[in-house]
Design goal:
By secondary structure, this protein is an alpha/beta fold. 42% of the residues lie in helices and 18% in strands. It has four domains: 214 residues, Rossmann fold; 56 residues, no CATH class; 79 residues, no CATH class; 155 residues, Trna Endonuclease, Chain: A, domain 1 (3-Layer(aba) Sandwich), CATH 3.40.1350.
């Protein structure tokens, strides 16, 4: 009989007590404990079992679960006879920064300090409040729901110290989703300020803490040592390319297909297309466990992972990125690959000026997969592609979201473009530009100064909206020059081909937008941009050409 699938269950004890569907990952416990690493950072995309594995570690080691052999009997870890004696013997400090989000530095700082206070309260039965300083006693008993900003940097160290005094054993610290506040801070524009706070907390907790036995941190990204892990030279870092723990997070293909067999599901190729594509260490064909468990429960292939969390970070990186980033995304969205030199260590401070940092972050988040890799002196040369169909659809949704506030205008423009209605195209396009131009500001360079940030984003919108009807390319060689956008119809009997040349008004060369449009149209003709379309058998009278002239947020199409 197939086991019950509980969607969203992240508590190991609950899953085991109810005999819910569970893929045995307890081998991770042995691997981690036997490594003897004092502090381990494990990076995996969201919804890849990090939280469940941290709950599993807590259930195995925490004295709160002493005698709970029933949770592990019959699983891989229980075959490790030497490790059995460690079950339920340690004080464990478990906390998560998953919900430490906010629009301001103050908001996020408070969320972090609330979670530290929760960690204190979880040990109220072990510690004697009467023996503690008043401020710590107030946190332990719940009279104060957060630690103070002054005491926060040393708060976890102090908790470990008190646990050691009470139990005679050093503490194990489990910190889940350590980087959520950092990603939020970067999106919100206060990365630097939060870094100072987190660096002090981490150095006190994981570097200068004599009452720490072991620690595990999980997150999506490997944030650069220089930012928040300075002086933390005892940190073992596990990324998606690290062989250590390579099969401990996510489902292998064997595990996925076995689960499908248990549930009576047979569409293996469909599942592979939708949810395969991840690889960790030496193991290819890793499947997203959140997507797979949802598929097992509902029996339908659709985006599950993509709908679980905001794509705010990825959206910001691509939307505000330069023309090259957007052109690369055009290639990716159409099923192609890109080659990039990148370092898996993410430095948020470099995201605006170091293109490789963008791709490293998107790889860490699971949006990209490594098709091939070549090691070089300064990191690795990676051939990258979108991970799978689910990820592709999530980016489609992301791009559509850029134009959501002007959806009626944007959709109107698409219909006018298809119909060849020039007047309507002009009206709608000016409305779209007025509403959305500022979305493509980089923070350093407004889109009005670099309108290509906008119109390359606009091209991505065309690609998404017209997929299945046109093949869209941009800034490619054709004839004697380079065109900006070419739309080649999949059905040339139904649809015209379209070439668009974008130009920014230059007062040194043109007196008006009309002249800018004329120059764009002339360039299309002089450089024979239509040559490639004609070579594909599309007659010249079925090729429409347009010049798009920009002057700030004003657009003229001719």
């Amino acid at each position: 009989m197939a086991r019950t699938i509980s969607i969203g269950a992240q508590g190991f004890a609950d899953i085991r007590e109810h005999n819910d569907f569970y893929v045995d990952k307890t081998g991770f416990i042995s691997q981690w404990w036997n490594s003897s690493d004092p502090a381990t950072l494990i990076c995996r995309p969201r919804r890849f079992g990090k939280t469940l594995n941290m709950s599993m570690l807590e259930c195995f080691f925490s004295s709160a679960y002493a005698g709970r052999h029933d949770l592990f009997e019959g699983l891989t870890v229980w075959n490790d006879v030497n490790l059995r004696v460690e079950q339920g013997r340690w004080p464990v400090v478990a906390l998560s920064f998953a919900g430490a989000k906010g629009a301001t530095l103050e908001d996020i700082s408070l969320r972090i300090r609330e979670r530290i206070a929760q960690a204190w309260r979880s040990h109220a039965e072990t510690l004697d409040a009467s023996l503690l300083p008043e401020n710590e006693a107030n946190v332990l008993t719940g009279r104060t729901t957060y630690v103070s900003i002054e005491s926060a940097p040393s708060s976890l160290l102090r908790l470990c110290e008190h646990l050691y005094q009470a139990t005679g054993k050093r503490a194990i610290i489990l910190l889940d989703e350590y980087d959520t506040p950092m990603q939020e801070a970067w999106v919100g524009g206060f990365w630097g300020e939060l870094t100072e706070f987190v660096r002090s907390l981490f150095n006190n907790t994981f570097k200068t803490n004599p009452f720490l036995e072991r620690a595990v941190l999980t997150g999506v990204t490997r944030i650069s040592r220089e930012s928040i892990f300075s002086d933390l030279n005892n940190l073992a870092v596990v990324t998606t390319t690290t062989e250590q723990y390579e099969d401990c997070f996510g489902f292998t293909e064997k595990e996925t297909f076995a689960a499908m067999d248990e549930m009576g599901l047979t569409e293996r190729e469909q599942v592979k297309e939708w949810y395969d594509g991840f690889s960790f260490g030496r193991i290819p064909d890793i499947y997203n466990p959140w997507s797979i468990t949802n598929y097992l429960k509902y029996g339908t292939a659709q985006p599950y992972w993509a709908n679980t969390s905001s794509n705010a970070l990825a959206s910001k990186l691509v939307r505000e990125g330069d023309s090259q980033i957007k052109e690369d995304f055009e290639c990716l969205l159409q099923g192609g690959t890109i080659s990039k030199v990148l370092d898996e260590q993410v430095a948020f401070g470099e995201l605006g000026g170091k293109p490789g940092a963008v791709w490293a972050l998107l790889l860490a988040n699971g949006y990209l997969k490594v098709v091939s890799r070549q090691t070089i002196d300064q990191g690795g040369a990676y051939e990258l592609a979108l991970t799978n169909r689910e990820v592709t659809l999530s980016f489609d949704t992301m791009v559509k979201g850029w134009f959501e506030q002007s959806a009626s205008y944007y959709n109107g423009f698409i219909q006018a473009l298809l119909a060849g209605d020039l007047d309507a195209m002009n009206g709608y396009m000016n409305d779209v530009a007025l509403d959305t131009f500022s979305l493509f500001d980089s923070g350093i360079r407004p889109a009005e100064r670099e309108p290509e940030r906008f119109y390359h984003g606009f091209v991505l919108g065309l690609l998404v909206e017209l997929r299945g009807r046109y093949v869209i390319t941009s800034n490619r060689e054709s004839g004697y020059g380079r065109y900006d956008v070419m739309l080649e119809p999949l059905d040339s009997k139904r649809d015209d081909a379209i070439i668009i040349e974008f130009k920014v008004f230059n007062p040194r060369h043109e007196k008006s937008l009309d002249e800018t449009v004329a120059a764009a149209k002339a360039q299309i003709a002089e450089r024979r941009y239509a040559a490639g379309l004609e070579a594909h058998g599309i007659p010249r009278d079925r090729i429409r050409t347009y010049g798009f002239a920009f002057k700030g947020k004003q657009v003229l199409i001719g």
